[in-house]
Amino acid sequence: MKEIILIKNGEIALKGLNRNSFEATLAKNIKRRLADVGKVNILCQQSTMTVEPAEDGFDMDEAIEIIKKVFGIAGFQRAAAVEKDMDVILATAPEYLADQLEEAKSFKVEAKRSDKRFPLTSPEISRNVGEAILRKHHHLKVDVHNPDITVTVEVRDSFAFIRGNQIRGAGGMPVGTGGKAAILISGGIDSPVAAWMMAKRGVTLDAIHFASPPFTSPQSEQKVHDLLSQVAKYSGNIALFTVPFTDIQQKIRANCPEDLFTLIMRRFMMRISNRIAQRNGCSALITGESIGQVASQTMPALACTDAVAEMPVFRPLIAMDKEEIIRISRKIETFDISIRPYEDCCTVFTPKHPRTRPKIEMLIESEKALDVDALVEEAVNGARLEIIR
Ligand code: ATP
Ligand code: MG
Questions:
Q1: Distance, CA 347 to ligand 1 centroid (Å)?
Q2: Whether the Cβ atoms of residue 36 and residue 68 lie closer than 8 Å to each other
Q3: CB of 221 sitting under 6 A from ligand 1
Q4: Is 329's C-beta closer than 6 angstroms to any atom of ligand 1?
Q5: Which residue, 196, 215, 212, is CA-closest to 325?
Q6: CATH of the domain at 30
Q7: Closest atom, ligand 1, to C-alpha of 344
């Protein structure tokens, strides 16, 4: 028996004229993500996509785990594609859906017939399949209004498809339809969640990480890798730029007031990220900041950071509680990586009394002690690129 995956597009069904290009992007993403499992053919018809394995030995279970993490999919189902012969349909339906039917208490059958030459009408197909299921699964009751499982039999041009309930997809928009932005990624809980949320809206991700060896360890860089690998299961490949930051941090510490250390550092992060993002075709930066979480995330502090940004800075977590952020990080399986104990560059020289209501003039004045442009230039040139798959 041949098995396929039927995919129900998410919001992209609503996008009018753009629909074709959105669907093409989704189809391309699905093909690329399933490449390790095997080749597939994809057919788009009225906001439904049919994904059909084009190779023998295609592992359907593995494919389904991958499909669950592809953005732009509202729901999906695996379906049996069988010969358009009523005997075959009647033999297959109770067997193919046995697991789901065993768990259910009630069911109904819906038949659709796009091939009008098929000898039975839709109500006749439904009735026959219903009877065949009841003969095999005695505990079931028919409930046409609120069934635990709806068995759908669809007779199309070349095959009859048999399927059970729809499984929820990852939602959102296909990655690649929402532009490209760079996530400033630390090893913390927040930034991977911010990255995931933006990818969910169809944004292609680059990533920028500031490392301060020897104050930060190779393990903390490994942690960033592992976090991004996890995000990449949803977003697709991510280009990671690791920026040497030790020199800048030491110069700030030696030449600037301690209470402004964090903010001056964050302004450097923004300037450097701007440059890297611009060079790589990103039109925005993303951070995992949330109002009031720490001293550098008060509104006046964020304004001082934004003042040096030359592109929009998106902060998808801005109004979220830590608890809500943690809930998502558990769901996307970044939480356990984030809580590994290694130092981030931000925590290396944290001032004892950071300013929570900074004035931009104070920062501009303090930064005069540094050759900002040269430091930014050097850091940008020292950035190391890797592709996280
Ligand atoms: P997170 O859990 O994401 O580390 P946080 O609450 O610890 O967040 P901060 O350390 O103040 O907050 O960092 C705020 C944001 O700045 C992070 O969400 C991230 O986007 C960015 N950031 C912090 N440290 C780094 C770093 N070493 N490299 C790149 N970006 C960073
Ligand atoms: Mg952090």
A1: 10
A2: no
A3: no
A4: no
A5: 196
A6: 3.30.2130.30
A7: 27
- Asked whether residue 262 is domain-assigned, the answer is yes
Q: Where would I find the beta strands (DSSP E) of 27-101?
A: 40-45, 48-53, 73-82
141 with 258, same domain? no
Amino acid letter at 4?
A: I
For residue range 373-389, list pLDDT tens digits in order: 999 999 999 999 999 99
Kindly give the pairing relationship between strand 180-184 and strand 285-286.
parallel
pTM of the model: 0.93
Task: Tally the domains of the chain.
Answer: 2
Residue whose CA lies nearest to ligand 1 atom number 22: 186
Q: Where are the beta strands (DSSP E) in the chain?
A: 2-9, 40-45, 48-53, 73-82, 106-113, 141-142, 149-155, 160-163, 167-171, 180-184, 204-211, 238-244, 285-286, 313-314, 384-388
Residue 289 beta carbon below 6 angstroms from any ligand 1 atom? yes
Residue 353 vs residue 86, higher pLDDT = 86
Asked if residue 189 has its Cβ within 6 Å of ligand 1, the reply is yes
Residue 175 lies in a domain: no
Q: For position 331, which CATH number holds? A: 3.40.50.620
Q: Is 107 helix (H, G, I), strand (E, B) or coil?
A: strand
Residue 179 DSSP label: -
Residue 368 sits in which domain range?
180-388
Is residue 290 domain-resident?
A: yes
pLDDT confidence band for 47 (50 / 70 / 90): confident
Of 119, 139, 170, the last residue of a domain is 170
Question: What residues flank ion ligand 2 with Cβ within 5 A?
Answer: 186, 188, 344
Residues 64 and 133 in one domain: yes
pLDDT digits (tens, 9 = 90+) for 259-308: 999 999 999 999 999 999 999 999 999 999 999 888 889 999 999 999 99
Tell me: do 271 and 290 sit in the same domain: yes
Half-sphere exposure at residue 293, Cβ-oriented, CA atoms within 13 angstroms: 18
